[in-house]
Amino acid sequence: SLLKVMETVDDVFLVFEFFDTSLRRYIDNCFLFDIRGREKFFLRQALTGLAYCHSLKILHRDLKPNNILVSFRDYPDIGQIKLCDFDVAKTFEPPLSPYSNKMGIPCYKAPELLMGSTRYSTAVDIWSMGCIFAEMIKLK
């Protein structure tokens, strides 16, 4: 959440809430954390956030563990996550317009993007989320 906006003559500063780490760091350092049981809470929160984006007709298009923030400050038992980095996100209206397929990294890209399609839907975000969840559960 945006907490504050500050301006100087030359710059604008946006102050956002602090999150402890990214899901990427969490996964890479899972030996430091007790991750058993938290995956389902993370997935539920991520899918709820993604459903909200899709209800606003926003495609994220670059979901990956680096773009999911994790904090245990307010919810130490289960954690809290938020989606971030919407720089390549697009708004959409059916029928879908052609979009670029040059965003994201291949291991989280949906097959239609890997095949070069420029017409895609919210399914590309769901695919990416499935890849992220699979990466989390393989740690068990």
From TrEMBL:
InterPro entries: CDK, Kinase-like_dom_sf, Prot_kinase_dom, Ser/Thr_kinase_AS. Pfam families: Pkinase. The keyword Mitochondrion does not apply. Its EC number is 2.7.11.22. GO terms for biological process: G1/S transition of mitotic cell cycle; regulation of G2/M transition of mitotic cell cycle; regulation of gene expression; signal transduction. It is an enzyme of class 2 (transferase). GO terms for cellular component: cyclin-dependent protein kinase holoenzyme complex; cytoplasm; nucleus. GO terms for molecular function: ATP binding; cyclin binding; cyclin-dependent protein serine/threonine kinase activity. SMART domains: S_TKc. Keywords: ATP-binding, Kinase, Nucleotide-binding, Serine/threonine-protein kinase, Transferase. Belongs to the protein kinase superfamily. CMGC Ser/Thr protein kinase family. CDC2/CDKX subfamily. This is cyclin-dependent kinase. It comes from Pisum sativum.
